[in-house]
Amino acid sequence: MKNFYLDFEKPISDIVDKIEALKIASEDDPKLIPEIEKLKSKEKNLRKRIFSKLSIWQKVQIARHPQRPHTKDYIDLIFSNFVELHGDRQYADDAAIIGGIGDIDNKSFMIIGHEKGRETEEKVKRNFGMPHPEGYRKAKRLMLLAERFSLPIISFIDTAGAYPGIEGEERGQSEAIASNLALMSKLKTQILVFITGEGGSGGALGIGVGDHYSILEHATYSVASPEACSSIIWRTAEKAASAAEAMKVSAQELIKIGIVDEIISEPNGGAHRNYSKTARAIKSSILENIAKFKAIDMDKLLEMRYQKLLKIG
Amino acid sequence: MNWLTRLIPSIGKSKETASKSKIPDGVWNNCPSCEAILYQPELEKAMFVCPKCGYHLRIGARKRISIFIDKDTFKEFGEEYTTKNPLKFKDLKSYDQRIKEAVNSTGENEALVTGMGKLNDLQVVVAAFEFRFMGGSMGGIVGTKFVEAVDFAIKENLPLICFSTSGGARMQESMISLMQMAKTSAALERLKKSSLPYFSVMIDPIFGGVSASLAMLGDINIAEPGALVGFAGRRVIEDTVRVELPDDFQKAEFLLEHGAIDMIVHRTELRATISDLISKLHKNQDNAVV
Question: Which domain holds residue A47?
Fold first, then answer.
């Protein structure tokens, strides 16, 4: 896959292009090799510099980067023997939410996450990761299954929001989300929530109530997408960047106000430059936190989950 | 002044006086639906339902509670709560300024009024959203007041009735606002565990975060005639799917047809309907509240 670069990543891509050109030239002229090494270290430093001081709007763009790892990538890299489970048993199977059982070290987990899809055809099939009610109802079914068999739930959040459409309203989008919030608040199994890309509104929260909230370094989470907030408050879609700043959508801001418990560092240049390193970091958070929460008596854990919500606002 | 009003200054002025003459001395009102001229004292008696066309006019939270609860029995909870600006949010105006304006124009401290009172002599806990306070949006204090009302109902073994009317989550509190959806839903789950009934009365309009949490979670969901309730607003859906939506889309009748609510109840029948349902639900219970 050819790398895609955002505007502010362009200086990086310029050096990468030079390195590529020199590599070809160096086949005839080995004297160029030290020059390549110099450029490589320059590129690495530049990447570090750009990513250490991203603006909030740039973070929004990174969170939506076309090459950012998705739930499916994390499932492949973190869990073994994943078996996908489909359907809400009432209406349909919503591919915008992926769910199933996977293992780490011979322990099983229920995995539920938004999936945006990668190529055009898959994106359409997955509705760009924007679920319908049946997606939330599939998630609910799998959560109840997880509870019965004591499978901890790992939830991956990455959506612009629940889909605003006619059929979704007819089938009760609000009820589907609301009843998941109620259920997750009392579900008798450990729930770890990972905000990996963009977390947008009730559509994100609908699978995102739990015991521990982790967010990737360049992921974002807000009450509405910056574009929606801009159109509601500023009455124009043009102020999305200002809206993102005002809503304090970045991981670094969210930890300050106690919305998330942990920020997971991304590789130099963002999660999209090194999938496996990002996945390893998430995996170690899963293992550490599951061990911690499994040691807590279930009634106490549910009380802690509730108190955590009460503390906000 | 735009170019037209500059040319013909009387245009702007005449519009102003026309709208003023509609409501002289606040005694006369126009029905927003059929435009019938309504006499205020008569309208009060009719619980602000147009006697000509049955349109349910919007009323504030306090008026709502006063027509629902037995006279002089209401005791308010948490009136001392005021909202700060946790994110230091600022758009064209600061959030502090917007709160101040909302407080001044509504006389309320926040978009939710909670308390207890009697319904046909039966003690109940009530909550009512004030739509004029920033569109009835739910921030941290609204969530907290709702949860405290739920807690009181559990502690005193009382039914809970909430009148929701809200544009949804409050942008100015972003994630703090979003998490109120989870907080209020979690509290209601505890109420349900105590076998206490929760009546969600849906008042025009309810969208977004309030629709997708406490408003949809009633044991009994009741809508007033014509109430608009949905997750996404009409304009957002039309912009997304590029289809013109039918007139009844997301209206109470549409909700009933699609299974989202138990019934549509006329405003003047709400007291009787809810008190009857409370007594039916509790008849076979040992810890009967009736």
Answer: 7-53
| Residues A38 and A138 both lie in one domain | no
Q: Do B169 and A179 touch (CB under 8 A)?
A: no
CATH number at residue A146: 3.90.226.10
290 residues of chain B, pLDDT tens digit each:
444 444 444 443 443 334 444 445 578 989 999 999 999 999 999 999 999 999 999 999 999 999 999 999 999 999 999 999 999 999 889 999 999 999 999 999 999 999 999 999 999 999 999 999 999 999 999 999 999 999 999 999 999 999 999 999 999 999 999 999 999 999 999 999 999 999 999 999 999 999 999 999 999 999 999 999 999 999 889 988 898 899 999 999 999 999 999 999 999 999 999 999 999 998 887 655 55
Looking at the complex, report in whole angstroms how far the Cα of residue B88 sits from the nearest Cα belonging to chain A.
8
Quote the number of domains for chain A: 2
Beta strand extents in A202-282 (DSSP E only): 212-216, 220-222, 262-264
**What ipTM was reported for this prediction?**
0.96
Q: Are the CB atoms for B242 and B86 separated by under 8 Å? A: no
- Does B120 lie in the same domain as B101? yes
Determine the structural domain holding residue B42 and report its residue range.
13-58
Residue by residue, DSSP assigns A4-55 as ---GGGHHHHHHHHHHHHHHHHHTT-GGGHHHHHHHHHHHHHHHHHHHHT--
Residues of chain B with Cβ-Cβ distance to A174 below 8 Å are 211-212, 215-216, 229-231, 260
Residue B33 forms part of a structural domain: yes
Residues of A in contact with B190 (CB under 8 A): 306
- Chain B neighbors of A56, CB-CB under 8 A: none
What's the predicted TM-score (pTM) here? 0.93
A213 in any annotated domain: yes
Both tokens of A275, joined, read 């999938």
Q: Do A234 and B92 touch (CB under 8 A)?
A: yes
- Radius of gyration in angstroms for the set of CA atoms belonging to chain B, rounded to a whole number: 20
The span from the CA of A208 to the CA of A1, in Å, is 31
Shortest distance, CA A49 to any CA of chain B (angstroms): 28
Please indicate, yes or no, whether residues B278 and B137 belong to a single structural domain of this protein: yes
B54, B70: one domain: no
Q: Number of helices (H) and strands (E), helices first, in chain B?
A: 11, 9
B5 domain-assigned: no
Instruction: Work out the burial of residue A244: count CB atoms within 10 Å of its CB; fewer than 13 is exposed, 13-18 middle, 19 or more buried.
Output: buried
Any CB–CB contact under 8 A between A139 and chain B? Answer: no
Mark whether B145 and B222 lie in a shared domain: yes
Structural domain includes residue A2: no
